[in-house]
Automatic annotation (TrEMBL):
<dbReference type="Pfam" id="PF23844">
    <property type="entry name" value="NCTSP_N"/>
</dbReference>
<dbReference type="InterPro" id="IPR057122">
    <property type="entry name" value="TIM-barrel_NCTSP"/>
</dbReference>
<dbReference type="Pfam" id="PF23845">
    <property type="entry name" value="TIM-barrel_NCTSP"/>
</dbReference>
<dbReference type="Pfam" id="PF09343">
    <property type="entry name" value="DUF2460"/>
</dbReference>
<protein>
    <recommendedName>
        <fullName>TIGR02217 family protein</fullName>
    </recommendedName>
</protein>
<feature type="domain" description="DUF2460">
    <location>
        <begin position="572"/>
        <end position="774"/>
    </location>
</feature>
<dbReference type="InterPro" id="IPR011740">
    <property type="entry name" value="DUF2460"/>
</dbReference>
<feature type="domain" description="Non-contractile tail sheath N-terminal">
    <location>
        <begin position="20"/>
        <end position="208"/>
    </location>
</feature>
<dbReference type="InterPro" id="IPR057102">
    <property type="entry name" value="NCTSP_N"/>
</dbReference>
<feature type="domain" description="Non-contractile tail sheath TIM barrel">
    <location>
        <begin position="213"/>
        <end position="557"/>
    </location>
</feature>
């Protein structure tokens, strides 16, 4: 099997590009304040539509074009061009349920940027001043070299559009007054821009046209993350980046619902339909576009809901009555599996999304995403005590102050009952889906670091109940991104083993989710994510997903497979049989792209974080016995097919050549109280700019480890591939160091070995080229 690899693209460097017209419909976005909703979809190559729902007199949505593409993957983004002066934009405007073009607060074009002197400012251009036709059906022509701001042209001033950051068209409800009055019910409105045309010397932009080969992975995304973009842009990006199969699409917890005003607040509602109009329009287009590109959709729904709009009696609660709130800001809450109203609401939501899929003619696949009884981070309180749960548990209800550690028999019995209630709720949800779409394929997504937390071994009674065992669902989906990004590979393997042992789904009925990188400054975590994804593919998992598209686009994660690269498993943990000494040659190499400008300046981009070594081990052949040993070793490795260990005569230890490794030689990392596994590394250079080399083949018995300068004689182990695993995660701030000797993982560079007895007898050493392999 070819090896999975990746790089993080920050810009196009010679990759394919094409040209597009500025203001192309697929690249517009929307934005708005909570609690209103809006979406934008493309309806033709030159047309788009915005749907919106307003809940108060101050709600305002913006239809946005940005000079800089902040949402696309670097290989797919359009070029940044802030000078709009050589552009004339024309479109037909039609609208309904909005302030009209001729009214105060009617659709206004806001241009944000800098004036000719470089001073930041904004201009407000009334579209009605540049429209011909009616107030809800007109042709608008905007010559950016000749625009005037102001409500009346006579009152305005010239707009300087030579340095624009973004522009947006404001959309408000008829009752808009920039105030805070709540409407009696949601007010829906829409607008369409059709016949969009941009002319002039500045009307053309370069845009990425990369289509990566299929690499065997699928994509996960969510509506809460991409609601502001067009489905055309989202689906096309997924396909262009090489992802195939199904898109696992999380409906989210904060943007899909309709709301109704009650007692000064807004709460999720079934009145008029469970999904708001912008959400329905967006997902209908999303499903159609996925089908057109041969991609399926797994509709994902969780028990999580935006807290501000959740009915109070629906919420899971701790024993003291505190609601189950996540760490997001603003927070979401978890719905109680024991509450009939909450679970009935989820069933109707699921049916609405499934109906959208049916209307688009795609096969129905549905995921119950991370259903659980919430455990309070930090103190381990499990939220089993809402009124509905108390009524269901009855006499089994006992106090569980902390679900971690050892529990009593009655406490375990309560967790078992909680598991039964959770399993019954998911079964009812899937049955509802199959009632709407009888052929639906059901999926369960379990987040292993929570439901199989090693610190809470009994929590699985409630959060991985035996009622989920095969064949309760068609597919078991597993994710463990905290373990992956923390470098805890052992827990991943153990968690999957425990989950499969408990629920019984064979690997061909499993999916794996790898990721995600929450913050851009942690982009280095993609290395562990890619490795975990590759491992899932190699163990035969039916589908492996990368979670999620916004992080992939933000960091430029670009995945591909290297045909001919050695498989990780094709390695024989044996040493090269000949001692070569310092007569062997070594050639470290990097890969650097150098672009030279006409002025002679250079832009250099390093493709590799570490050098790749090449050796010639021919000088180690000193006799006919050595020659025979080399040929036997070459045949046993099947030429270049299998890797092996090689001792670099110039660099084989954590310290200087000739010195003995000590436990303070090299940095392992800093403890954070959570992470327990750290890879061995050898650093070249000083400080933050030092080049780091991953060591995967330490010499057995030579590794020494220290914490805060004190050598540890126990409490850690080498678990393979240079990973040091501590029995207990080092405390936050602990300085971890190590010393060791190491070999280089290599393979024969060629499948042919040329050795001539005559030239050898004449004193000429054969050439035995070796090349380092990545692990």
């Amino acid at each position: 099997m070819s090896a999975l690899s990746y790089w993080l693209a920050d810009a196009r460097r010679g990759q394919e590009a094409r040209f597009m017209k500025r203001f192309s419909p697929a690249y517009w976005t929307v934005n708005f304040p909570r609690p209103m909703m809006a979406s934008v979809v493309t309806t033709a190559p030159d047309a788009l539509r915005v749907d919106a729902v307003f809940y108060g007199s101050g709600d305002l949505a913006g239809l946005i074009w940005e000079a800089e593409d902040k949402w696309s993957h670097a290989l797919l983004a359009y070029e940044t061009d802030r000078d709009f002066r050589d552009c004339v934009l024309r479109f037909r405007w039609r609208s309904g349920g909005l302030r009209r073009l001729d009214e105060t607060h009617g659709p206004t074009l806001t241009i944000e940027g800098r004036d000719a002197a470089g001073v930041p400012r904004s201009w407000y251009v009334r579209l009605w001043n540049y429209a011909s036709g009616g107030a809800e059906d007109a042709v608008v022509t905007l010559d950016f070299a000749n625009l005037e701001s102001g409500f009346l042209l006579s009152d305005g001033e010239p707009v300087w559009a030579g340095d624009v950051d973004r522009m947006f068209i404001s959309l408000v409800a008829p009752g808009y007054d920039a105030g805070s009055m709540a409407f009696a019910a949601g007010v829906e409105g829409w607008c369409e821009l059709s016949g969009i045309r941009c002319d002039g010397a500045g009307s053309v932009l370069a845009v990425g046209d990369v289509v990566l080969p299929e690499h065997g992975l699928s994509m996960a995304t969510g509506y809460d993350d991409c609601f502001n973009q067009t489905p055309e842009r989202i689906v096309a990006s997924i396909h262009a980046l090489g992802y195939r199969g199904d898109i696992n699409h999380y409906a989210g917890m904060s943007h899909y619902f309709r709301l109704e005003p009650v007692g000064g607040g807004l709460y999720v509602s079934l009145a008029g339909g469970v999904l708001n109009a912008p959400c329905v329009a967006w997902h209908a287009d999303f499903a159609r576009r996925a089908k057109a590109l041969g991609l399926g959709v797994i509709w994902s729904l969780s028990y999580e809901l935006f807290d501000a709009h959740c009915w109070n009696d629906w919420k899971q609660r701790a024993e003291d009555g505190a609601p189950a709130l996540t760490g997001w800001s603003p927070p979401s809450t978890l719905l109680s599996p024991a509450h009939d109203g909450a679970m009935g609401y989820l069933r109707v939501v699921a049916g609405a999304f499934v109906s959208i899929g049916l209307a688009a003619g795609i096969s129905i696949k549905f995921q119950v995403g991370e259903p659980w009884w919430w455990v309070m981070p930090g103190d381990g309180r499990i939220c089993l005590y809402d009124d509905a749960a108390r009524a269901v548990f009855g006499g089994l209800l006992v106090s569980i102050a902390d679900v971690r550690g050892a529990l009593s028999g009655p406490q375990k019995a309560l967790l078992d009952k909680a598991g039964e209630v959770l399993a019954a709720s998911t079964a009812a949800l899937c049955a509802w889906v199959k009632g709407v779409a009888p052929g639906a394929v059901t999926h369960l997504l379990a987040y292993l670091p929570t439901v199989l937390d090693p610190a809470a071994p009994e929590a699985k009674r409630a959060n991985m109940p035996l009622g989920w065992a095969s064949p309760a669902f068609d597919v078991l989906q597993l994710e463990d991104y905290d373990w992956v990004t923390e470098g805890r590979e052992r827990l991943t393997a153990l968690g999957i083993e425990l989950a499969v042992g408990r629920l019984g789904y064979p690997v061909e009925e499993q999916h794996y989710f790898s990721g995600f990188v929450l913050r851009g400054e942690d982009a280095g975590q993609w290395r562990e994510i890619a490795a975990a994804a590759d491992a899932a593919v190699k163990r035969g998992t039916a589908a492996t997903f990368v979670w999620a598209l916004p992080q992939v686009a933000r960091d430029g994660f670009t995945c591909f497979r290297l045909d001919g690269e050695d498989d990780v498993q094709a390695f024989d943990d044996v040493a090269f049989p000949l001692g070569v000494g310092r007569e062997a040659s070594v050639a470290p190499a990097f890969s650097t792209q150098v672009v030279e400008s006409v002025s002679g300046h250079e832009r250099r981009s390093s493709d590799w974080a570490d050098a790749r070594l090449s050796f010639d081990a021919g000088p180690g052949v000193r006799s006919e016995a050595d020659m025979a040993a080399l040929i036997a070793f070459f045949r046993a490795r099947r030429g270049a097919a299998r890797g092996f260990r090689f001792s670099d005569p110039y660099d084989d230890r954590s310290c200087g050549i000739g010195e003995a490794p000590g436990p303070l030689d090299q940095r392992l990392g800093l403890g954070d109280g959570v992470r327990a596994e750290f890879p061995l590394q050898r650093f070249y250079g000083l400080g933050e700019e030092a080049q780091a080399r991953r060591i995967t083949r330490p010499v057995a018995g030579t590794v020494r480890v220290a914490v805060d300068g004190v050598e540890m004689v126990g409490g850690w182990s080498h678990v393979g591939l240079g990973v040091i695993a501590f029995d207990v995660a080092p405390v936050a701030g602990a300085v971890l160091t190590a010393g060791f000797r190491f070999d280089v993982p290599v393979r024969f560079a060629e499948d042919r070995l040329d050795i001539n007895r005559a030239t050898f007898a004449a004193g000429e050493a054969p050439s035995v080229p070796l090349v380092e392999i990545r692990e």
